[in-house]
Amino acid sequence: MEKKVNATIVGEGGKNMTKKTILLIPAFFLLLALLIACIRIIDDGEVGIKKTLGNYDDLELGTGVQLKLPVIQQIYTVNTKTQTIEEEVSVPSQEGLIVGLDVSVMYSIKPYRASEIMQTVTGDIKDTLLIPYIRSGIRDTVAGYEAKAIYSEAGRVEVAQKLKEMLRNKLGESLNIQDVVLRDVNLPERVRNAIEEKIDAEQKAQKKEFELQAAKMDAEIDIERAKGISESNKIIAGSITPSYLKWKFIEALSLSGADVIYVPTEANLPILEAGKMASDTGTVVWGDE
Fold first, then answer.
1. What is the model's pTM?
2. Distance CA 69, CA 1 (A)
3. What are the residues facing 84 on neighbouring strands?
4. Cβ contacts of residue 103 below 8 Å, gap of 6+?
5. Which of 26, 102, 227, 270 is the S-S candidate for 183 at Cβ 3.0 to 4.6 Å?
6. Cα–Cα distance measured from residue 9 to residue 155, given in angstroms and rounded to the nearest whole number
7. Whether pLDDT at 274 is above 50
8. Stretch 127-155: mean pLDDT
9. Given a cut of 90, is residue 80 above it in pLDDT?
10. What total of structural domains would you count in the chain?
């Protein structure tokens, strides 16, 4: 009888433990889900914006683990990394030609302005602000240029620079406008061919002008060189006197080393001087003989 009572007690105790275990498992998972709901992880290149009962906090949240109250609070993330937007726009040039432009804009959201953007801008800032300003800026900028100027490399760089400055003036408080690139300029084929032919003709004319200027410079150099030679000859001619010629003649006789020296009598050399040279170097034969 006693054994039966103990068996009954053990059996009832085992049933109670099983019931507790069954109840604890759902409670554990519920607690785990609640804990997960209270945590939001902010990655690098992002900031968090906490919203409590419909109101955004003015202070942005940094990277790492952030806590929130389930249901009552939400945390939204804003990408602050560099992003690129590509836009194709057709706008009229100064002469009224329709020019197609492919534009790329590199930008990023300033982290400390993310909360204000969330509170004041509806939807994606790219669609709400950036694209409209890009289209408006291109239209206003290109209107002051001829199609030929935009088609050139220098014109593309200049248009892109002006567009970047305009975007910075308009959106610089909230966005970092890092760069603007005008990737391509699309013109009607006949217009493009005409521009290319005109550019080619201008380049040839510039080359001819350069060659002409180079030829003029070369001619001026030759003239100056000739003037120098002429002045040099005048100086040399002025320095050649009868005495100098006599001295050079005697010097040549002394350096010749010849056994027989022919001395022209019309050289008007002193006889004693000629005789002295003859005694040193050899026999003198007079030209009259």
1. 0.59
2. 58
3. 106
4. 86, 87, 88, 89, 134, 138, 160, 163, 180, 181, 182, 183
5. 102
6. 96
7. no
8. 88
9. yes
10. 3
Q: 64: left (phi > 0), else alpha (psi -120 to 50), else beta? A: left
Domain boundary among 47, 79, 111: 79
| Residue with token string 């992880």 | 41
Alpha-carbon gap, residue 142 to 215, rounded angstroms: 41
Q: 37 with 62, same domain?
A: yes
Residue labelled with tokens 């890092």: 178
Answer yes or no: do 93 and 74 share one domain. no
When mean pLDDT is compared over 22-31, 178-187, 247-256, the highest value belongs to: 178-187
Q: What is the pLDDT of residue 105?
A: 95
Residue 208 half-sphere exposure toward CB, CA atoms < 13 A: 6
Structural domain span for residue 226: 203-238
What average pLDDT does range 168-193 have in this prediction?
86
